[in-house]
Amino acid sequence: xxxxxxxxxxxxxxxxxxxxxxxxxxxxxxxxxxxxxxxxxxxxxxxxxxxxxxxxxxxxxxxxxxxxxxxxxxxxxxxxxxxxxxxxxxxxxxxxxxxxxxxxxxxxxxxxxxxxxxxxxxxxxxxxxxxxxxxxxxxxxxxxxxxxxxxxxxxxxxxxxxxx
Length: 164
Description:
By secondary structure, this protein is mainly alpha-helical. The chain folds into 2 domains: 1-94; 98-164. 75% of the residues lie in helices and 2% in strands. The protein contains 5 helices and 2 strands. The protein has helices at 2-18, 29-56, 71-95, 103-131, 136-159; strands at residues 62-63, 68-69. The longest helix is centred in the C-terminal third of the chain and has 29 residues, at 103-131. The relative contact order is 0.11.
């Protein structure tokens, strides 16, 4: 299975690298791969969320006996683990392929960085929308940019760092 993941990651990396030359003077190859694979994972997340919300949950509340979950939160709870894992695999096998840390350690660290990103999103939106009274969509865009930069450097120096 690992061999398949490595080969698939190389294939995806080579495909991304095909489009890299015009951006060479603006971004490192690694940052370009990070951005493209991250954007692809976001697109996958949006598509999966749409399908789960509209066709699996069917916009219905989900009763669990002790609590009822709203359809948009239920769809999030179903899709989040899938796209968390797909994002991890893309970063491990496409972007940060030189790391010599064990896969389990990388996954735990990746999940920690994602957790911090969730907190940055939450508190950033609270600050920009509720305290500074900025519009939500531009606020989300600013927070996403901050998270992207934070996440790239965190993944590079913490999650997928090279020991030696």
